[in-house]
Amino acid sequence: MTIRKIMLIGYLFISVFTLTAQPMYQQFADSEMKRFPKAWQLDHGKRLYFGYSQGLGCLAMLRVAEKTGDKKYFDYVEKWADTLINEKGEIHLYELSTYNVDFINAGKILFELYEKTKKEKYRLAIETLVHQLKYQPTTLEGGYWHKLIYPHQIWLDGVYMTGPFLAKYAKLSKDDRYYDKAIDEILITAKHTVDAKTGLYYHAWDESKKQAWANPQTGQSPNFWGRSIGWYFMAVIDVLDELPVDYPRRDKLIQLVQSLAKDLSNYQDDEGLWWQVIDQAGREKNYQEASVNSMFLYAYSKGINKKYLAESYRGLIHRLYQGIQSRLLKKKDGVWTLIQCNAVAGLGGNPYRDGSYDYYVGERIRENDTKATGPFIMGCLEAGF
Does the global pTM surpass 0.85? Predict the structure, then answer.
């Protein structure tokens, strides 16, 4: 056999393999379903619960269902929601009295479930969550408190929980007031959490300035936690998804996304990654954290696809994906795993979380946290990986 024929056979093999191999977003979605056969088990869940992490993972599964046309991903999500919500629209273990915005995030999946199944209970559950937001405590300017137990506090995390949900409800209800509220939430948060020098966003702001973690002059928390900025970046991108193209202040959100994308690029390391405490790469105990990198993969990729961001960021995305592949992504027995996921981080509470550098780098690290895997799936889908 000639060298030319051998090379031709090799090229044909590579071409066939490329055509038949599933994209990473589908491979990883299948890995999650193998690891967590029922959606309540996502994020290592131990009980049936309307959790924000499970909601995030299920949102990713709905996107894979939409892209592939494979109903198994939709069924995975719908079975979870169908089990959680009774015919009156009551949500299992939901507690209005806590006024916890984390409950709102899982509600995002209900819009698509209602549209596809026509089950009235999903519409009723949406209204239950809207009712919470009508009475959710707010700062003087109208920014939602993160929870009733965290008075006067806006967290970046909470903008992702509430903003896209409000914008989706505005479209469903044809009531523009909910668009306005979603935009308000983003801009009020930016006003009080952005750092003018770096363009980065502090994790939270305490209007009362009474928290031990709050700067007594500004009320801001002391550090730039990667995932919190990821939550915020995704929130703005997803709210833009829902807004009519000529809607007032939409341009302000696009400008915000463009500024954030530019400023974040200054902190991407030589391996294409960002760190748990973003502005202190390489410092002792700091690490390249999976959720922030997955969230940025999603936000940058979708921002380009929607033309909010310039095509020139494609290079950043490819470096980011290569970094995830080399440092954060592992495969064993045909199942993909994301490592170096920060399990949880917050502020206040008991024991008290002070927002210090040592606090963020000292929190628990685990594999396959859904705050990383959900955005990774959606990020790969948006980037075409």
Answer: yes
